[in-house]
Amino acid sequence: MMISVKQINRFGLLVTGPFFGILLYLMLTQVPITLPSSAFPKAAAGLTALAPEQTGTLISALDTAKQAAITTAQSIKKTVQLYTQTNQSMASIAKTAAAQMTRPALIYDSRITKKIGYPTRTITSDNITAQLFTIRAQNFTGYALKVKLKSRDAMKMVLGQDKVGGSETTLSAVKRYKAIAGVNAGGFADSGSKRYPLSTTVMNGRYTSGFEPSYKDLFFVGISEDMKLIGGEFKTQAQLDKLKPKFGASFVPVLLKNKVMQAIPSKWQTSPKRAPRTVIGNYKDNQLLFLVVDGYNETGSSGATLQEMQLLLSRYGAIDGYNLDGGGSTSLIFDGKIINHPSDGSLRSLPTHFLFFD
């Protein structure tokens, strides 16, 4: 069935006619329309409308609070800036104080270094500072090795092939342990095909063959648990134990004690008179000094006398000094190279060696 447009229009008028009629009546008669109070949202409990003067007071208070907040924020900002500046100042003061504390040590080190000369090579790390110098005297040439130990792992003494009776060159020990430097240590005695350390020897805080009281000018020299050079003649083990030796070896004779040159027994003044030498000394800041002197043979015609070694130790500012094994045993290795000129033509196989590590 088809519905025409006219039919639709008539139906729309029939539906909307009554609504438009009522609206026209209300407009013409101006009947007031009143909504109930429930049609409006109620104010929150406890709140009442503010009078104009109260509103002004509130606005004034808010302005005052705002200004107080701004002032407080500015004050906090200034306090933070002052705190930051104070921290920076304190850090600067601490840095300056630390520099001042190390200054005397640096001055002392500079003084003793100048007495030796200028280092030809230097190896430095968190563990150690090792400086190599060349010595040129009237009757001999040699080398000085100044060592500052910064940790307990910076130096050790090792046995040849790591066993009592074993032996090897200092270069072999340096390479085997991957050390940066090495110096020959104490004397030795041969027995058959084995080579044993002379007299009292300490390794890792233990006596390798027991304690032997000092005799015939023998002394013990080594490093204590607190990394200080210790040495001298010891009649009892208790005397040496008090110094807490970490490692050390024995030889003859003592050269310097508290800066005083010690009398050299006549036997050691002429047996031989001149020879390759190795000595060890120390400074008041516990740095170590090794002096290694070249000699072409052991007939007494080249090398240094023990008195000359005493003079060198004293001239270089050492506190104590001890003669280590010399002659063909004298060995100095630095940075993987043989520094001295071994009198045997090649390095001698030895039972004890001082090694240094970076």
What is the makeup of the main sheet?
Answer: 8 strands, antiparallel
Could you report the average pLDDT, rounded to the nearest whole number? 86
Main β-sheet, spatial strand arrangement: 1-2-3-16-15-17-13-14
- The SSE string, one letter per element, is HHEEEEHEEEEEEEHEEEHEEHEEEE
The fraction of residues assigned to DSSP E strands is 25-35%
Q: How many beta-strand runs?
A: 20
Q: Please tell me how large the radius of gyration is.
A: 47 Å
Uncertain runs = none
Which range best describes the helical content: under 10%, 10-25%, 25-40%, 40-55%, 55-70% or over 70%?
25-40%
The number of helical segments is 6
Globular, elongated, flat, extended or rod-shaped: what is the shape?
elongated
The N- to C-terminal Cα distance equals 110 Å
What structural class should be given to the helix and strand makeup? alpha+beta
Which descriptors would you attach to this protein?
membrane; Exopolysaccharide biosynthesis protein; 26% strand; transmembrane helix; 358 residues; 6 helices; five-stranded antiparallel sheet; 33% helix
Structure notes:
- This is Exopolysaccharide biosynthesis protein.
- It comes from Paenibacillus phyllosphaerae.
- Pfam families: NAGPA (PF09992).
- Residues 178-357 form the Phosphodiester glycosidase domain.
- The chain crosses the membrane at residues 12-28.
- The strands form five sheets. An eight-stranded antiparallel sheet has the order 1-2-3-16-15-17-13-14, with helices on one face.
- It has helices at residues 5-29, 52-116, 170-177, 237-241, 266-270, 306-315, and strands at 121-124, 128-136, 141-149, 155-159, 181-184, 188-191, 194-197, 202-203, 206-207, 219-224, 229-232, 245-251, 254-257, 260-261, 277-282, 288-293, 321-324, 332-334, 337-338, 352-356.
- The protein has a domain at 122-356.
- It is 33% helix and 26% strand.
- The protein is of the alpha+beta class.
- The termini are far apart.
- The chain is built from six helices and 20 strands.
